[in-house]
Amino acid sequence: MIYSITASRDATIYEGTGAATDLDTKYMNTGGSEILEINKIISSSQTVHTYNSRMLLYFNIDWPGLVGLGMPTASVSRSAYLNLYSTEANNIARSHSLSIHPVSKNWDVGTGRATNKPKTKDGVSWTNYKGEDITGHPWITASVGFTTGETGSNGTTNNGGGQWWTSSVHTHSYNYNIDPNTSMDMRTDVKNILSDWSSSVVDNNGFIIKLSGSFDSTTSLETDKYKYGNVKYFSRNTHTIYPPRLEICWDDKSWTTGSMATALDMSDPGAVFVYLKNNRGSYKRGGKIKFRTLIREKYPVKTYGNTSAELTIQRMGVERWCYSIIDCKTGETIIPYDDTYTNMSCDTSGNYFEIFSDSLFEERDYKIQLRYRPTATSVDYTYYDIKDTFKVVR
Questions:
Q1: End-to-end alpha-carbon separation of the chain, Å?
Q2: d(CA 263, CA 219)
Q3: Burial of 152 (0-12, 13-18, 19+ CB in 10 A)
Q4: Which of 50-59, 136-145, 333-342, 380-389 has the lowest mean pLDDT?
Q5: Cα R_g (the chain), whole angstroms
Q6: Are 188 and 55 in contact (CB under 8 A)?
Q7: Bridge partner list, 186
Q8: At 63, is the secondary structure helix, strand, or coil?
Q9: What domains does the chain contain, in order, with CATH numbers?
Q10: How far apart are CA 206 and CA 208, in angstroms?
Q11: Taking the model in full, what pTM does it have?
């Protein structure tokens, strides 16, 4: 099971001040912007001042509700992935990385936009986690102010830039030297952070994402003299299907074959036909959808009998099949293949899988694609497009 949640708060905070760079942004709020941004501007000397941006994201996670939906309580049985979708990337370095930390302050998202003139200064900013301008509540910047396990940073020009816990950190790396076709979209494992949240080690105040490295370290990507480009991502305010998404994953596979025959012979993967049974086509938002996926031979051997061979229910092999959900219009994968979290299940009526409708966007058409692998370690996949489509309605 891959259960997706859309961000309920997000904003970019910008370091900077001074007429030389036109970066009077230390109090600027962008909680209403359609774009999130990671950027670094270097002063003309290339050694004195850098001006960075960082991204804040918050997802409202109903832990008891998820347990009620079947999520295991043990964090070791779950995974989680943070998804961001890039809209623009310029002058990207051959290799660099972003670090993702759990925020330690409950910040006010605000309603400002980066393009507002005059700038909106009420809400989260580089200087404040809430409040307005010089009267707001500032992020702690002195080490004596942090509690145990908490840290932050001092800017080269402006203090601030957030506070976060050090108990868990995840890194997302880009390396065009290894793969020149690296996507700027982000799908990053954040399992340890969610484990801390679910077990109340720290409160869920969201994520902060920044260029990697301790701010005051000589190895920090935020303070060195090199440029790493500008990457813009869609925010929750986008009018597209690409807002930030958090995937919480667990293995919901169930395998009970009863008196059903052995699995269908897959020695020729092209000689089988996969289809849906009883697809309603539209499903109300807020419920669980069960898709019954049946499999049969395309060309069954003729035999004497009083029933059609095509009516005989056959089943797939255990741990060899998984599914994905694809947006029909854009071709984007909404629920990706995963050999653990999108495995097919089986009962005495055949194979099936389940998804939660609120993981999908309303009023869009989706299709299902299945993937088969001949052995548990094989990467020689065969894909099956199911012609039926469905959508989630209000």
A1: 22
A2: 56
A3: buried
A4: 136-145
A5: 25
A6: no
A7: 84
A8: helix
A9: 2-249 (no CATH), 253-393 (2.60.40)
A10: 7
A11: 0.89
